[in-house]
Fold this sequence. Notes:
Order of helices and strands: EEEHEHEHEHEEEEEEHEHEHEHEH
Structural class: alpha/beta
CATH topology of the largest domain: Rossmann fold
Helix content: 25-40%
Number of helices: 9
CATH architecture of the largest domain: 3-Layer(aba) Sandwich
Strand order of the largest sheet: 9-8-7-10-6-1-4-5-11
Strand content: 15-25%
Largest sheet: 9 strands, mixed
Number of strands: 16
Shape: elongated
Radius of gyration: 22 Å
CATH superfamily of the largest domain: HUPs
Amino acid sequence: MSGVCVVMEERNGRIARMSWEALAAGHTLGAQLGLPVNAILPGTQTESMAAEIATKAVAKVVRLEHALLAAYTSDAFALAMEQFIRAEQPAYVVFPHTYQVRDYAPALAARFGQVLIGDVTGIGVGPVFVRQLMQGRLNGEYSHSGNGTCFISVQSGAFRADQADSAAATVEIFTPNIEQAQIRTKPGQPFRGSAQTVDLGLAQFIVSVGRGIKEAENLGIVQELATALGAELAASRPICDNGWLPIERQVGSSGQTVSPKLYLAVGISGAIQHLVGMKGSQCVVAINKDPDAPIFEIADYGIIGDLFEVVPALTEAVKSAKQ
């Protein structure tokens, strides 16, 4: 057995963001073990998407093509993936931890006498797969034993999609043998989360505010800083629970998971439930008057001071730098 296969997911004719993150995880795993990384794309008429994937430093892209894969059903996807895996025998199969993957991947792993190591947030030497327990309070480490294929899915925001380098790869087609009679369910509407006016997961710059802002009327000074930086405004759970900002702007275990280039935490103490949602940030800057705030333990840069003094001064500095 050899190789790492990363399963890419299509959404409305485009590769879903979490698939690029899964590919970054596949590259991490492949680099550690010295294994080639291949991308698998189930569906139909996937030529353009496969060509895009082929630029992301993979050994090859396999278009898993069949008419019965045009609309998602767990039966068709599990059958197609099973046939491909039995033919190719990869050492590892990596999925993005999406609702679709949660539906069929555990059953797929069971067909090989394996379990799905789901919601992985890190890959250590061994390899060891890290998962969070008790809403991020603890980390659990899991390793694969035996000679079978190892199946894992990676949590949104745990791996940075821009870690995948550019290179050329070959594109192949694998046509599974699937009959309509084997499909026990009818395709339904794809799962859609609640309507959101902003997808913080796509934001490159985020200014996030916590209970240190004290009153809803004070949010304006943080919004001004976000505007000056060209950043999205986000919040910890208490702000959204109080109705000061809409729930779609909440970051954390019960909100959105983000991985921006810059995460500026204003008046956020750093409860583990919040850290779970922003740990993938490339650079974390924290502003808090409490020098012992947990947020400083993960911050790349920390400013100990009153946010009502620091934030306006920082806003003016940003504005001046743009002039």
